[in-house]
């Protein structure tokens, strides 16, 4: 009846499935925005009456800094918003925000989907680390080119990788590799502590290893690209519960990470400026 009224076919029908036509997709996108705006208006009214409320589902990477620092930020937020139930899933990237019904995700890689809304919260400094035993046996690299002679544990699948190191205006691209690789920064760190080679790591993830002399930083004057920390959502039209968390965590998470790591020279977190250009949260 609706198709007859508007004079357009919105669905392609077969005996096996239904599929949206281009008109149907356009109509769905438009009415979805209207529904989202209506839901946001309702949430805003409820938030004025009793504060943000509801079930807030967050996806985050299973990294050490998340367990140690993001957990504290969520604890503070939860104490301030008794009507919001926060659920956190530790999931490696990529995360299906729509399919798994997440309100937002914390990411350390910028998502490939251009439709997602991305806000950079901070940048975590990276360094190169090895155990005292390994460095005593193989010698500490004195220049970036010395890394080509070392065993390097790669936190990714593959036998080699290209690292770009910078010092002031100098930039050097080095091919590194070794007999060990894995898909976990935490596991790569453990291999390094066990003396299996050098690895790159977020400085904030190895601060305990540095203070207890399980690891030493090599080539401290040379910088690897920093790891960005993002908040990712599927829409700018966020319910009050998600907006409240993003506003709170954007300030607290960057401050907590920077505090935990000390100044940027020692190894830490640079506060991010404006959102990335592609799409940004308000």
UniProtKB/TrEMBL annotation:
The keyword Transcription regulation applies. Residues 1-21 form the HTH lysR-type domain. Pfam families: LysR_substrate (PF03466). It comes from the Bacteria. The keyword Cell membrane does not apply. Signal peptide: none annotated. SUPFAM superfamilies: Periplasmic binding protein-like II, Winged helix' DNA-binding domain. Keywords: DNA-binding, Transcription, Transcription regulation. Belongs to the LysR transcriptional regulatory family. This is HTH-type transcriptional regulator DmlR. The lineage of its organism: Bacteria, Pseudomonadati, Pseudomonadota, Alphaproteobacteria, Hyphomicrobiales.
């Amino acid at each position: 009846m609706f198709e007859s009224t508007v004079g357009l076919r919105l669905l392609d029908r077969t005996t096996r499935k239904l599929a949206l036509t281009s008109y149907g997709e356009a109509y769905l996108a438009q009415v979805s925005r209207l529904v989202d705006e209506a839901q946001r208006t309702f949430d805003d009214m409820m938030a004025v009456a009793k504060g943000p409320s509801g079930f807030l589902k967050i996806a985050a990477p299973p990294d050490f800094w998340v367990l140690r620092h993001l957990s504290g930020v969520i604890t503070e937020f939860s104490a301030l918003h008794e009507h919001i139930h926060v659920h956190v899933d530790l999931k490696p990237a990529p995360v299906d925000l729509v399919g798994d019904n997440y309100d937002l995700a914390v990411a350390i890689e910028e998502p490939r989907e251009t439709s997602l809304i991305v806000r950079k919260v901070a940048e975590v400094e990276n360094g190169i680390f090895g155990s005292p035993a390994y460095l005593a046996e193989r010698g500490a690299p004195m220049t970036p080119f010395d890394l080509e002679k070392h065993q390097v544990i790669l936190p990714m699948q593959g036998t080699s990788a290209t690292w770009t190191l910078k010092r002031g205006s100098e930039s050097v691209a080095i091919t590194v590799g070794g007999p060990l690789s894995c898909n976990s920064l935490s596991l790569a760190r453990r291999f390094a502590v066990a003396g299996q080679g050098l690895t790159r790591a977020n400085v904030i993830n190895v601060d305990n290893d540095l203070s207890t002399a399980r690891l030493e930083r090599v080539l401290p004057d040379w910088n690897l690209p920093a790891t960005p920390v993002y908040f990712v959502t599927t829409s700018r039209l966020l319910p009050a519960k998600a907006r409240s968390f993003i506003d709170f965590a954007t300030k607290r998470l960057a401050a907590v990470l920077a505090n935990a790591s000390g100044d940027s020279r020692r190894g830490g977190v640079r506060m991010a400026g404006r959102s990335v250009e592609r799409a940004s949260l308000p």
